[in-house]
Amino acid sequence: MGEFCRIAWLVMRKDLRVEVRSRELVYTTVFFATSCVLVFSFAFVREGRPLAGVEAGIVWVALAYAGQLALGRAFERELGQDALRALLLAPVERSAIFVGKLLGIVLLMAIVEVVVVFLVTLFFSSALIEQAFWLAALLAAATVGFAAVGTLFAAMLARSQSRAVLLPVLLYPVTIPVLVAGVSGTIALLAAEPNLDQARFWLALIAFFDVVFLTLTLWTFEPLMAE
Fold first, then answer.
1. What is the per-residue pLDDT across 50-60, written as a single tens digit (0 to 9) for each?
2. What predicted TM-score, i.e. pTM, was given to this entire model?
3. Residue 15: CB partners within 8 Å, gap ≥ 6?
């Protein structure tokens, strides 16, 4: 277990170091998410007031598409000089490589989430911050499930010339339950009288999907990458 965690940490640290130097993914995803929020702020605000419940949809749409953008580039750096093959041939558990990549994506999406929630709160005068604990729990749980499935598909499609087209085709049908549960839980938090019981129900449902997704992705990563 110690060796597994060490390899996962090394892979994540390598991705973070590369990202700190280039800031390519951070700038791209944050800019894209910010653009989504700005466009929606013009479309869904009437006479200075947003349409009821629209903030929940905006948060999750912006995060889903920003996450897809990040996932599309997750394994791109390893394609140069056949580094992906070398990584997979290393004498370590491939599932540890998967977990390291997953953690890097989760941290990147967490940065985007902070920016998106701040902007939605600012432009829509939303009460998101008032329910910060439960909102953070929903976002964290959904991010893990979304990123787990996305990391698997991104690795599977890394060598494909059509990965930019195929990734969303594979990703969204599988992760729709997580996104719908996230939107529903956020709407429950934003109600005039926040319904915490309903929010907890949706959070538990997302946690269930996380367990399923993580189990399946860890189980299938090695045989899929061996093909």
1. 666 788 888 89
2. 0.88
3. 100, 101, 104
